[in-house]
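Hey L., structure's done. Input below.
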Amino acid sequence: MEVNPHTKIYGVLGSPVLHSHSPRIFNRLFEKYGINGIYHYWQIPDQSKILKNFLKNIQHLNIKGLSVTIPFKKKILPFLDELDPLAQKLNCINTITFVDGKTIGYNYDGIAALKPLSEIPDWREKKILFLGLGGAAQGIILTLYFHFKYAKRVTIAARESKKIKKFNLQFQETIPEANSLKWDELDKKNLALFDIVINTTPLGMHPHSSSSPLREEVISEKHVIYDIVYNPLKTKLLKDAQRKKAQTIGGLKMFLGQASEQMHLWTNVKVNFKTMEAIYLQ
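Output:
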């Protein structure tokens, strides 16, 4: 599509972010649906002053929306004008829209990540273990309770136990206190206590695709192994789980689910998963 003075600008903000597939996805979506828009990479240093100035100065362009990824999903909050009610509860965003001179933050991490889980029979009664407690994990956990009314109490394995304590203190009035599991306790005996394991760490992400948060021997065929990493499509964790005959869910569904929500927010165009997947696989 030809760029002209009326072209609306979108992009993904992060550091690093040049590996992101989002520009290819959105630019193909804009072309398919006849939207006069362009989607770009915005990689800036992880410094508060630079982030603040970036958000301030970028508004002089015809920019309408940003996808936000690590490490800015929380760090950008002080520089936004408003937060969507869910993003306010989560205290973390992954999407920004620019409306009438205001920057408004949204969080679609949880909603996008949990749609594949909802296809598992009786999933609300299953025990879930989260690997990692970054912004994505917190968004998913809180959405479990706020949006999907999850019935069980989750367990979190994080390298820094103080993160789990802080998380429990922050949300003790609204969700059940999360159990904790030390990283060196991720053995076969402890993993057998869980039905669903969700990796929210970057372990296994390109270019470190040979790493995994779990050893293959701790996985069994009774597990559902869900890795939110989407690049590569089949992480080492998922390959190991498939060898053990466990059910697997890749990060592509979450990634495309987020993109679908963002597309609807920015352009009012709804795109179903099959269409999103077909565009991605092109």
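The mean pLDDT is 93. The chain is about 35% helix and 20% strand.

-- N.
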